[in-house]
């Protein structure tokens, strides 16, 4: 593996897995999802995300979903570099 599974790495991978399958979660408890986001995003680091992405290659709609969340919560990120300005990404209602 090109990275260690420390708490920050594990946290980002878990978050991305949840976001990737978010549309399949029926009756999601949004309050619990927000608690999960609060806990997970405390460990978010864009350099670490870059390292994980270079190995995991998440779909662009999942990155757009993450970017929307980070932007709405005021978390600095550089996820624009993975997204096309010509595309419109479908982001689930997570609020």
Verbal overview:
- By secondary structure, the chain is an all-alpha fold.
- The chain has one domain.
- The chain contains 4 helices and no strands.
- The mean pLDDT is 93.
In short:
By secondary structure, this protein is an all-alpha fold. It has helices at 7-21, 30-41, 46-56, 60-72.
Poorly predicted regions are none
**Global Rg:** 13 Å
CA(first)-CA(last) distance: 34 Å
Strand element count: 0
Helical residues, percent: 40-55%
| Percent of residues in β-strands | under 5%
Question: What layout of secondary structure does this protein have?
Answer:
Layout (H helix, E strand, L loop, with lengths): L6 H15 L8 H12 L4 H11 L3 H13 L23
Keywords:
95 residues; globular
């Amino acid at each position: 593996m090109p990275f260690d599974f420390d708490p920050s790495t594990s946290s980002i991978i878990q978050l991305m897995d949840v976001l990737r399958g978010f549309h399949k979660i029926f009756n999601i408890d949004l309050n619990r999802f927000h608690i999960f986001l609060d806990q997970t995003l405390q460990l978010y680091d864009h350099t670490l995300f870059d390292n994980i992405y270079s190995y995991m290659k998440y779909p662009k709609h999942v990155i757009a979903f993450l970017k929307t969340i980070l932007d709405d919560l005021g978390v600095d990120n550089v996820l624009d570099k993975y997204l096309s300005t010509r595309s419109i990404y479908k982001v689930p209602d997570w609020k």
